[in-house]
Design goal:
Layout: E1 23-24, H1 27-30, H2 35-50, H3 52-75, E2 82-85, H4 88-99, E3 108-112, H5 117-130, E4 133-137, H6 146-154, E5 161-167, H7 179-188, E6 192-197, H8 208-214, E7 218-222, E8 234-238, H9 240-243, H10 264-269, H11 278-291, H12 297-318, E9 333-337, H13 346-357, E10 359-360, E11 363-366, E12 369-375, H14 382-400
Parallel strand pairs: 1-10, 3-4, 3-5, 5-6, 6-7
Antiparallel strand pairs: 2-8, 7-8, 9-12, 11-12
Helix pairs in contact: 2-3, 2-11, 3-11, 4-5, 12-14, 13-14
Length: 403
């Protein structure tokens, strides 16, 4: 395929090893690690492979502790409550599997239709194993402001509800949900709250300790998305009363370790079998690298990303596409409804935008509608969103004609 060089380059794009021929508007799904982070990871990989026995037996533990301290500070939680995992889905598995023994037949677990499918699958599996059932709150796409979201969750909190799984930032719509208010309401009813914070670190000014004070039981999130760590870097943290029951999704040596010099929480989560620890260990490098790209550090990074995403959304709205949710619930991701596109056409249309227009952007089926979700990070330029807004109407018309 011959691709024209059409994409304007941000002055900050040189920090990333991105394909300059593409309009990459999907940072939210997989992130992108800067060159400096990849270089640090490569150096660390070489160090490991020079003496794997020595690294894993004498060096790794102290390095994980140091990385834990830095990342825990960034997300606003005491290191004692924090452990690394490989991704937020693994963290949700650990949280819900740890909750499972408390469930009885007839109990209920709650999630929403804005939740992440993989994590909803975990919820269903846990419920089925214990004779419980899952209640999916229908938030929908129309009129879903923060008050409506909270009200619909609260309406689902019946007497047999034992836990709520809620997204801090929703995957299909990019909306920031009112997790503090929901956690307080659940805590008053004795309902556990597991927060899937897959998108939150680096997208919002995350402070976990106040969330635990509000009633959150477990919080898990990715570091490969908005903080730009390598893939395979994520975390899980828990309130003290739930931490004692929290176990990793993979049982390994830590489950019966005789050591008394480290907390069982760390002994279990820090080693679940031989793995590549470089994403965890490079997470602090990513935090420093991205923060240093602009004068105001990560606060400015988030402000710039939010502003660009909103300007990109305004381009799509001007082209006739309706946004999902209010600006007050948005960060650097935003979704619009693709009128006339059937949900079953979502994947094919996503590939059509790449094939015909060099645009990488997710097209997501949600209920009876299809959504398009944009993201913005420092390497993006407004011109890419303008390009998307120009070509989208005709691209939809072609899809409708089966072209």
């Amino acid at each position: 395929m011959v691709v024209q060089q059409l994409v304007p380059v941000s002055t900050l794009a040189a920090h990333w090893a991105l394909d300059p021929s593409l309009h990459l508007l999907n940072h939210g799904s997989y992130g992108a690690a800067p060159r400096a982070v990849l270089a640090a990871q490569a150096a660390l990989t070489a160090r490991i492979e020079a003496n794997t026995h020595g690294f894993f037996n004498r060096e790794l533990e102290a390095l994980v502790d140091a990385a834990r301290t830095e990342v825990a500070r960034f997300v606003g939680v005491a290191p004692e409550r924090f452990a690394f995992v490989r991704n937020a889905t693994e963290g949700v598995n650990a949280a819900l599997m740890s909750l499972a023994p408390t469930l009885a037949p007839g109990d209920a677990l709650v999630c929403s239709d804005h939740g992440y499918n993989a994590c909803a699958n975990v919820l269903r599996r846990v419920a089925e194993a214990r004779g419980a059932h899952v209640h999916t709150v229908n938030i929908g796409l129309d009129g879903c402001d923060a008050d409506a979201v909270l009200g619909r969750f609260l309406g689902a909190l019946g007497p047999r509800v034992r836990a709520v799984l809620v997204d801090h930032v929703t995957s299909p719509t990019g909306l920031i949900f009112p997790v503090v208010e929901l956690a307080r309401a659940c805590a008053a009813r004795g309902v556990a709250v597991v927060v899937d914070g897959a998108h939150a670190a680096g997208l919002v000014d995350l402070a976990l300790d106040p969330l635990f004070d509000a009633g959150v039981s477990v919080y898990t999130g990715n570091l490969h998305k908005w903080t730009c760590a390598p893939k395979g870097a994520a975390f899980i943290a828990a309130a003290p009363d739930f931490q004692r029951a929290l176990r990793p999704a993979i049982t390994s040596h830590g489950a019966n370790s005789p050591r008394t010099d480290r907390a069982p929480f760390w002994l279990e989560f820090d080693w679940c079998g031989t793995f590549d620890p470089t994403p965890w260990l490079c997470a602090p490098v990513a935090l420093c690298t991205v923060a240093a790209m602009v004068p105001g550090g990560f606060g400015e990074v988030m402000a710039r990303n939010n502003d660009l995403a909103r300007r990109g959304l305004r381009c799509l709205e001007a082209a006739g596409f309706a946004a999902v949710g209010p600006d007050a619930m948005r960060g650097p991701m935003a979704s619009v409804v693709l009128g006339g596109l059937a949900p079953g056409q979502s994947l094919a249309f996503m590939h059509q935008l790449w094939r015909d227009h060099q645009i990488e952007v997710p097209v997501i089926a949600m209920g009876d509608r299809a959504l398009l979700r944009i993201s913005a990070h420092l390497y993006n330029q407004l011109a890419s969103y303008e390009h998307l807004a120009r070509v989208l109407p005709e691209a939809l018309a072609r899809a409708a004609r089966g072209l």
